[in-house]
């Protein structure tokens, strides 16, 4: 990322941003989808016919992508897209966030001044975009790689699990389906999310799941020492009531239970962020969404992704939890998962 003299070329930065925007437009309107299907190399006219779009706009899009090095130009004004389908779909979807963030800019501008609002809540189109990375196959991979090793710490098929901050319940339902002898609760303070989760539950017809609209810092009193596992997936860095949430997690976990918090694997320290791809992705998203959300309540320090792994770990330990090493990765290494126990 760093260029001559250890500095970014700002001219190239702006041009790359424009190229990413145009690439995202191509994905959103279906140009890339049709480009994948058509015999390559193809002409602008052939691609326009395939897409049902105006040839002149297709030509301009192609030339923009040639200039950025994404589309390859051939003889006889033909073009090809030298990437795999999975690369194009993953990064094409990623680039569609740019106009969504642009639409959020007035909200961000409003909270920046000292006399402005503290923060703001989630933006619907942003959540829909983020949901594109949480398809069933993605959730299964997450369960296999990041959740099953936690379950192995307390092997049982009839465990009781709390998904705190479950959102639309996609992960909750997949866990319940994967482990039919378990009892799974999903809670979220957002009524719309819980209503959507309950609608999906009716479709799935699962009997081992319960969804409740409950704040994470105000769990039912009867849940004391009730759960074998409590998971917080993309919760802590977005929350303003982190201390209240962790206090409640400690109360509802069984004495031999395990908590697991999942957040973007970004360091708390600026010196460790240089040339870090993960940080370059998540910190801008946090500026527009996670940080304002963590400041949207009546109190809270404002965490966001920039809070980072090391300070999040310290916060969990301050609430009387002991960190647990899972697998071969040392707990001092910045990572997505933090596992803890009373």
Which properties best describe this structure?
342 residues; alpha/beta; Arc Repressor Mutant, subunit A; Rossmann fold; seven-stranded mixed beta sheet; three-stranded antiparallel beta sheet; 14% strand; globular; WHD_Rv2258c; methyltransferase activity; SAM-binding_MTase; methyltransferase
What class would the helix/strand composition place it in? alpha/beta
User: What is the distance, rounded to the nearest whole angstrom, between the alpha carbons of the first and last residues?
Assistant: 42 Å
Give start-end ranges of low-pLDDT stretches.
none
Number of domains: 2
Helix content: 40-55%
Spatial order of the strands forming the largest sheet: 6-5-4-7-8-10-9
Rg, rounded, reads: 23 Å
- On the 0-100 scale, what is the average pLDDT? 95
Beta strand count? 10
The fourth-level CATH homologous superfamily of the largest domain is Vaccinia Virus protein VP39
How would you characterize the largest beta sheet? 7 strands, mixed
Could you say which overall geometry the principal axes of the C-alpha atoms support? Answer: globular
Describe the overall structure.
Residues 156-258 form the Methyltransferase domain. This is 3-demethylubiquinone-9 3-methyltransferase. Residues 19-86 form the S-adenosylmethionine-dependent methyltransferase Rv2258c-like winged HTH domain. One of its GO terms (biological process) is methylation. The structure is a single chain. The chain is an alpha/beta fold and 342 residues long. It folds into 2 domains: 4-95, Orthogonal Bundle (Arc Repressor Mutant, subunit A), CATH 1.10.10.10; 118-341, Vaccinia Virus protein VP39 (Rossmann fold, 3-Layer(aba) Sandwich), CATH 3.40.50.150. It contains 13 helices and 10 strands. The chain has helices at residues 10-29, 31-37, 44-51, 55-67, 85-95, 97-111, 124-131, 136-151, 170-178, 191-204, 242-252, 277-294, 308-318; strands spanning 42-43, 72-74, 78-80, 160-164, 183-188, 209-213, 227-233, 253-262, 322-324, 337-341. The strands form 2 sheets. A 7-stranded mixed sheet has the order 6-5-4-7-8-10-9. The longest helix has 20 residues, at 10-29. The chain is globular, with a radius of gyration of 23 Å. The mean pLDDT is 95.
